[in-house]
Write a structure and sequence with these properties.
- By secondary structure, the chain is of the alpha/beta class.
- It has one domain.
- It has a six-stranded mixed sheet, with helices on both faces.
- β1 and β2 form a beta hairpin.
- It is globular, with a radius of gyration of 20 Å.
- It starts with a helix and ends with a strand.
């Protein structure tokens, strides 16, 4: 049986990395294709076994949990997944926070969000590129250096000597010979291993993440469909993070082993609660305490959250001004003083919680 404290300690170096991966819609959607090509898809979906680390912390360290919740309570717009957006001259629209997973609990919309979706004339997701596999493949082919080392660099040349044997053994247990991925960027490899077996199997079987499911429903209902970013821009953002951050994420993900299930389950439970302000305080407590860890966190926050928030808010305006839009973005983009909710308010929209 896993010990809560041991899992929490190991999750300390990897939880932010998993948040980063879960925040990339196209990457997780494309993961099913990678698995199918590798021939490692499961015939039957394994049972999810993750435990909620916050519930365990309530028993093991209630004082720390109290501090986390107190910090979360200070986060602007840190509660709620569905937001009503109004502006004079346009019919109301809605902003909904998603989680890019296939878990049935996530894919099933709350009643309030379903009603807003049904009433919409336009559905907007982060990128519509994920709906066209050829577009995705073209994006990857146009910039191979974002996913693969195109110079003399190899994965093994970047690994700390003390970690090479562990990485090779851990990959072998997953049926991945190290030699077969030696030219792959570490974050791409991490995306192939940093999710529970049950989630990987669902993706390999073709089950869509929530955002893709919404897009497909919109198409079936004859709604207009729009996007806020391109797959390539998401790829470039992830690839631009410090290489040391990527390598550490890969190594610690492999060390975490089955503990990945607990980190992902905790993220799902936080999401289902609607307490989006809890994400960052919880995972910040799990960051490495050294300067390298702080540097990696700052780069991630600026590149993957803050900068993209600005893009999303700007690109959402034409849809909002047309009215009756249902805009779905990762829930991590909603809260905070620089979150999409607050940015839209600064643009003159009235944004109120609607769930």
């Amino acid at each position: 049986m896993k010990k809560p404290v041991a899992i929490a300690d190991r999750a300390a170096s990897v939880s932010l990395w998993l948040v980063a991966l879960a925040n990339i819609l196209f990457l997780l959607a494309f993961l099913a294709t990678l698995l199918a090509l590798s021939g490692r898809a499961e015939a039957a979906t394994p049972v999810c076994t993750g435990k909620n680390m916050i519930e365990e912390m309530a028993t093991s360290d209630p004082a720390a949990l109290g501090r986390i919740r107190a910090e979360a309570a200070k986060t602007p717009n840190g509660a709620g997944l569905l937001w009503k957006i109004e502006k004079e001259g346009a019919e109301p629209s809605f902003l909904f926070g998603t989680m890019h997973m296939t878990d049935p609990r996530v894919v099933t919309l709350p009643a309030s969000a379903q009603a807003a979706f049904d009433a919409s004339s336009t559905v907007v997701i982060e990128t519509t590129d994920v709906l066209d596999q050829q577009t995705m493949l073209a994006s990857f082919a146009s910039s191979p250096e974002l996913m693969m080392f195109t110079d003399k660099t190899t994965l093994t040349s970047l690994l700390p000597p003390e970690d090479k044997a562990m990485v090779e053994e851990a990959l072998a247990k997953r049926g991945i010979p190290l030699a077969s991925v030696i030219k792959m960027k570490p974050w791409i490899l991490s995306a192939m291993i940093a999710l529970p077996a049950c989630e990987l199997a669902r993706k390999a079987a073709g089950e869509p993440v929530l955002d893709l499911n919404l897009a497909r429903q919109a198409e079936s209902a004859g709604k207009e469909l729009g996007g806020l970013e391109t797959a390539k821009s998401q790829l470039e953002a992830m690839a631009s993070l410090p290489l040391e951050f990527h390598v550490e994420g890969l190594v610690e993900t492999l060390r975490l082993g089955d503990g990945i299930d607990d980190v992902i389950e905790t993220m799902i439970d936080i999401y289902l609660s609607g307490d989006t302000g809890l994400f960052w305080p919880f995972f910040e407590t799990a960051l490495p305490s050294g300067e390298d860890g702080k540097s990696g966190y700052s780069a991630f926050e600026e590149t993957m959250i803050t900068a993209r928030n600005g893009v999303m808010a700007r690109e959402a305006k034409p849809f909002l001004d047309a009215g009756r839009a249902f805009i779905a973005v990762g829930a991590l983009h909603l809260p905070g003083g620089e979150g999409v909710v607050e940015l839209l308010r600064k643009e003159g929209y009235t944004v109120t919680r609607a769930d």
